[in-house]
Amino acid sequence: MTASGGKPTALFKIYRGATAVIEPFAWRKVSRKLASFGVPEARQRERLGHATQPRPDGKLIWFHAASVGESLSVLTLITRLGERLSDAQFLITSGTATSAELIAKRLPPRTRHQFAPLDSAGPVDRFLSHWQPNAAIFVESELWPQMLVSARNAGAKLVLLNARLSQKSVDGWRKWPGTAHYILDQFDLFVTQNQQTAENLRAMGADPERIQPGTNLKAMSAPLPVDEDALKQIREALGSRPIWIASSTHDGEEETVLSAHKDLLARHKDLCLLLIPRHPERGDRVETLVSDAGLSCARRSRRELPNSKTQVYLADTLGETGTWYALCPLVFLGGSLKEIGGHNPFEPAQCGAAVITGPGYFNFAETFKPLIATGGAIEVTDAPGLAAAVARWLENADTFDKARKAAGACVAAQQSALDGVVETLCTRLDLG
To answer: Which domain holds residue 328?
Structure first.
């Protein structure tokens, strides 16, 4: 069934009018933020719909992903689609300077990146007038009403891919059923991460015939890049010392990690913790926490290397996580000791790691469930539990090897679904 689009609701018209009023203020905010990251003015203006690259000839498939994780998750899919559709060109849009920087390092063939236009009539119309996409694929939960409606009116077929909607988002949309139905009716296809999202979409008014339960696209992404020179340098600096990683930690989690590390040092005096805060700009704050815990620290952002007395190596840099996972396959994954939702466990698992997590991984529940069930991941709740889990794997090589193999098997099982996603998109969107 093809999307019908329907007629705009009163609420949508109010939203459209409000965004026109808000646009100058939104532009001021986002341009300042991009400028603070060193993004040139011309590229900042992409958020107003002013393209900085020409549209390529032929069929153009547009992917929109808001965050770093969402952006990187589609790169492997774009590569596979490019292999299947030799005449297709690809555009990926995102909203942050960090995502743009990381995407630029990993762009697939025939792919270009732009910052997404603000969801206001002028920026969206300029963007669509220039790029004229044949298909628009929105990743996860990024639903910008004007962008969706205008893209469909411009003739693009729309997909919500890797769809994941929080219960809060679902409850919010269900308060406005007419508008929810109108927005969802713009899509030709929904490919969900799990059955729960499929049920939520139906409850919000999506056409059941357009909903197809899928899998987590992040499980299919290529392994994170590894800097072999940096890896060699760190290995030489650490020598034969045992290591464990706490990755993607957030405010309020480092205290628990450092407490666990102090407990572990009582049993493994030469153990080094490689601490990777989710947001590198928190490096100064995290260094203070390390000092307050009475532990010695070296920082990657200062180009320091760990020495024999370094108890914590603070990896407060961007884009090097794959290198650290290649260094050490024992990973605690943050965003889970607090109610944050967790982070993608397949990133460390793809690099051969077994994973430890806190209980707050609800955004990745369908991903962690098979990992924990097969022993590829362990759930802990506090510092003693974290210390015990790390010690168990440090001290029992056979148990740790089985955990790593179980994690790898889960990744392999998910990756096999990529061909099915490619086939679904090509068939349902008439891409060839």
So the answer is: 228-415
Residue 325 covered by a domain? yes
Are both 208 and 252 inside the same structural domain? no
The domain tally of the chain equals: 2
Write the single-letter amino acid at 114: Q
Closest listed residue to residue 11, CA positions, set 182, 151, 142, 186: 182
Examine the domain organization and report whether 123 and 185 are in the same domain: yes
In a domain, residue 5? The reply is: no
Tokens of 294: 């009475």
277 vs 356: CA distance, rounded Å: 16
pLDDT digits (tens, 9 = 90+) for 254-286: 999 999 999 999 999 999 999 999 999 999 999
pTM assigned to the model: 0.72
The sheet with strand 272-277 has its strands ordered as 297-299, 312-314, 272-277, 243-249, 330-333, 354-357, 377-379
CATH code where residue 301 lies: 3.40.50.2000
In whole angstroms, what is the distance from residue 104 CA to residue 75 CA?
Answer: 11
* H and E: helices and strands count for the chain: 19, 14
